[in-house]
Design brief:
With 213 residues, this protein is of the alpha/beta class. It contains nine helices and eleven strands. It is elongated and about 55 Å long. Bound molecules: 1-O-pyrophosphono-5-O-phosphono-alpha-D-ribofuranose. The site of 1-O-pyrophosphono-5-O-phosphono-alpha-D-ribofuranose (PRP) has 12 residues, from strand 9 and helix 7.
Length: 213
């Protein structure tokens, strides 16, 4: 019986139709419910969890498979297989700052900067590579607020449409990575449940290739 970890939130709206096309989705009614374990075809179960926790569930084998953004994979570096780019959930991890503040990317090496982010590792690596000392301020959401209230000089956060930045007077100053959602697999599950997992990967790969995104 496969356990599949899915992130709640806006990505779920893209994942469920994709899984439905390979006959592996929870029902629409269950998706709308507050249930955290949803039944699926062939006895499989979907675990509905916070995006940042998907890697943990799959790495520890509590889920056999998960769908997670590349940002969270690179931040957490879990010991999992990553066989497929699903090409959904596209966005980018950016440095952004208030329009009327100096561009943080033009700072001289050796400068220090206060950076609000939930991506501590990716932000630290990015600025370290440029010789900037980043003082990281770890936040869990509404990152855009931090420079507006003078708590940070810039943010490192996801940008999809750019609407949140625009609404708050921030501009993108650099792209750190491009992001899409990835299928991840627990290595032990990949070995012991290959009869179920490999056909699923194959079907999804064909589907994604056919969509040509
Ligand atoms: C994400 C992200 C940005 C916003 C970007 O936040 O952290 O704030 O979406 O999307 P946009 O470019 O289309 O405006 P989310 O809405 O997930 O909430 P959060 O602030 O709690 O992370």
């Amino acid at each position: 019986m496969l356990k599949i970890a899915l992130a709640k939130g806006r990505l779920l709206e893209q994942i469920v139709p994709l899984l439905a096309q390979v006959g592996m989705a929870p029902s629409a009614e269950d998706v709308k419910s507050r249930k955290l374990i949803l039944p699926g075809p062939d006895g499989c179960e979907f675990l509905i969890i916070r995006a940042a926790d998907v890697c943990t569930f799959v790495e520890r084998g509590a889920a056999d498979i998960g769908i997670v953004g590349r940002d969270l994979l690179l931040e957490a570096c879990p010991q999992v297989y990553e066989p497929l780019d699903l090409r959904i959930g596209r966005c980018r991890l950016c440095v952004a700052a208030p329009q009327d503040h100096p561009d943080p990317m033009l700072l001289e090496a050796g400068s220090t900067m206060r950076v609000a982010t939930k991506y501590d590792r990716l932000a630290a690596d990015f600025f370290r590579d440029r010789g900037i000392q980043a003082e990281l301020i770890h936040l869990y959401g509404s990152m855009e607020l931090a420079p507006l209230v003078g708590m940070a000089d810039c943010i490192v956060d996801l940008v999809e449409t750019g609407g949140t930045l625009r609404a708050n007077g921030l501009v993108e100053r650099a792209t750190i990575i491009d992001i899409s959602s990835r299928l991840i697999v627990n290595p032990a599950s990949y070995a012991t449940k290959s009869a179920q997992i490999q056909p699923l990967i194959r079907q999804l790969r064909q589907l994604v290739a056919g969509q040509g995104n």
